[in-house]
What does this fold into?
Amino acid sequence: MNEALRARLGWIVGAVLAVGLAVVLIVTGEENALVIGVTQGSAYGMVALGLVLVYKSSGVFNFAQGEFGTVALFVLYLLDFETNYWLAMAGALAVAAVMGFLTERIVIRPLFEAPRVILLVATAGVALLAIGVQIWFGDAQGKPIDKAFDRVDRITVLGVQVTDQQLALIVVLVALAALLALFFTKSNLGLAIIGASQEPTATELVGISVKRLSSFIWVIAAVLGGLAAVIAVPNLGSFGPGIMTSQFLIPAFTAAVLGGMTSLPGAFVGGVLIGIVQSVATSAPVFQDIPGTKSTLVVFIVLLVVLLVRPQGLLGKPAR
Amino acid sequence: MTAVASSATDSGRTRGARFRPSALGWLPRLAVWAAIGYVVLYLPLGRPPTDVQRFTEGVAFAIVALSLNVMLGYVGQISLGHQAFVGVGAFTSAYIVTEQGQSFWLGVLVAAAVGGFQALVLGGVSLRIRGLYFALITLSYGLVAEQNIFQIQELTGGGAGQAAPKPDWFDTEWRYYYLALGFLALVLYIDWRMMRSKSGRALLAVRENPRVASTFGINVRAATLFAFVVSGVFAGIAGAIKAHSDTQVSVDVWNFNLALVFVIMTVVGGLRSRWGLVIGGGFFALLPYFIEKIPGLEDVLADIPLVPRVLTPEIAPLVIGPLLLLVNLIQFPGGIGQQIRPITRWLSGHRFDIHDKGPKEVQITDVRA
Amino acid sequence: MLEANHLSIRFGGVQANRDVSVAVGEFEIVGIIGPNGAGKTTLFNLITGFFAPDAGAIVYKGRDITGMAVNQRAALGLGRTFQNVGLVKGATVRENLVTAQHLQADYSTIGGLLGSGPARIVERRLRERADSLADVLGLGELLDTQVAGLPYGTLKRVEIATVLATDPDVLLLDEPSSGMGPEEAHQLGDTLLDLRRSFGLSIVMIEHHVPLVVRVCDYVYCLDFGQMLAEGLPNDVRNHPQVVAAYLGEDPDDEAAPVDSMAEGN
It folds into this structure.
């Protein structure tokens, strides 16, 4: 079995798992959990895409990925008072992009040769800085945030209303995943990025600047994080400092790990899978007696099990 | 893959009679020691109790830094969930004292034991998970602690928090501060002895090259787990000290931000440097205090242009800390400990050597997963 | 003393060792030669426990140790060096020599943490032994020097000293003379013969430097493509037609570091 086929097999397995879970849920009358799971999971998937992009190109676990999103949310929140929602959203994404660019320039680039663990600490530092600045500029309280689409009763799936905002999330995610997959398999720039991640020296030799590619990747990743936040969080109604890190980052990492850390479709499928599992498990009887938010615990267990049983993810090849 | 030897600049100090300062040479050293003793031991006596409580927190943070250093500095495993270890220690001790009516001393002991056990379980379960992935696990565990473990009513008293009275005899802030210093001294002593005994050397060997370590007869897994337990015990002690200093442990302190502050103060302090770690921990705990006390600084922070709100002393560590970390990682990877090494070496009776930066950092087997 | 019986191991599509058998008698010095990538280091990794063989067994002092962990084998007296130097490079020479005496540090861990009297006494003994081992290999002047930064040939000697510190009965040396000039290599031969006498050692060495092999080895095995090509007395193996053919196009005295990545010991 060749590499490409193996990779595809992996996320097909993931997709089959997801569909299987979905069927079970429909049969058992848990449609609501399913719909919530898929929409929530789409947001995880989108954050995970950014994580995978950065890991693929530079081998960094980017703990600041969530905060690209929270910062974008704050900008959206602030600009929404001043101007029209769509302009505010564009502004939010622009700020996320700038933040991604600056992170790469100021933090990642000087540490290019450092051990990966140091880079991880550095990105965690960026995340904390972002959270600190959010608290500083605003406060630690939750803030209400508007949705882009208000209508909630356009579509009903399996007897469950899907809001337009949730629909937008899924559509954008699918479109993005497809676009990115195309980008990395067809476009020259995409192929160059993959090349740079595997053979930096060789890529430099054929005249492509690995450094410039790195900036580019971080900007894309930051925009993905921003998009995930500004589309997914309004579903929750409000947000606070660090929300993307405390609520989205770990599920997204779990999704990326499920996808083997390097597969975009894998991260996407993994995200949806996590979303469904989370949504079902939190209502499972086993967890009834556990105090607090069950979803965190569920993600912890999934992450632990995946890392122990199949650290290479659903699709990676076993490392010898 | 392998350790890369960096260029040879370190002058080989040859064997022969070790340098010992003369009686006259000890004088300035003793003076500096006395000054440090004055600042740490005597100065707090003249401060109001609320200030002293903050100094105690600085001591607790110093112990946390030493605890994290065992994992990050000696084993090379990063913990982004250390607030959970410290928090569990705090709640355990408070629970033992308030709910079980036992003594403070038993509270600290149980907190240390629970801390060690917790680290052993988490480490044991995830022993196969290394490097970046282990960081994920610990971060996730920290969130679980925050959102599940600390929500257990009986242990944490829920939203109201758990009372944690000070022990008899140490019921003033000053006395308790000295007690905390005593615990810090104990932790420092154990850390020092550990690194001068077989267990500490085994850790350094395992961190740098597990394969070589195993050919030395070192059981890599056992050594790693041992370090986790030590780290957990230190964290438990730190938690208990903070708990009884605040006399009330509340749930919302132990959040993700705190975990990051812990990691940052450890790295900024300087891995594998006891001096640096203590300074780093103390500095971050006292940062708000310094901002309040340095005349005019608060006004400066209040008037930063283009910023809508005041940078209050409470928020300052969250903003200044990461900035320090980034400067640190990029400019001074050895942290405070490395920068002050010539002084600390001199203080312990070596020659003053401004160029002494300690052992060269050897690029270790990278955990690129 | 040490027997490897019919060892085989496969990595993916590569048969790194196929039915390899080696026997080492007490106080014997055995050489293992062969072109780069022949599976010599893989054999060491099997014997010392870094890899588990797909087939075959390893018998040491009459015991089957095939399933044992690396550190357990080390405790039984199997000491090894690595092709690309197995040392704790962030530490000084002395620290390495003391670390390697891990198993001789017979005080309790708790005692070590608390700085108990017995622990301090043992620690002093370990340091003294480190000093005397350093003297044996002529490293006395370098005791307080950090390992990283030492020249390669010196590192090889430091490595031999650390392995001796683990108190082995059998020494497995992976290219001990690499990075050394002919002069130094010749001295190394003397050192090895001395060590055998003074420490009562058996030695197995992977070595490219043929004059050294011929001078010190009692018996030589030649591996090629993971299989045993020839064995016998040094001069016989050296002149064995198949061995000569295997080395054809490759200078037998070539000392360039082999790119044996699959079997990298480190």
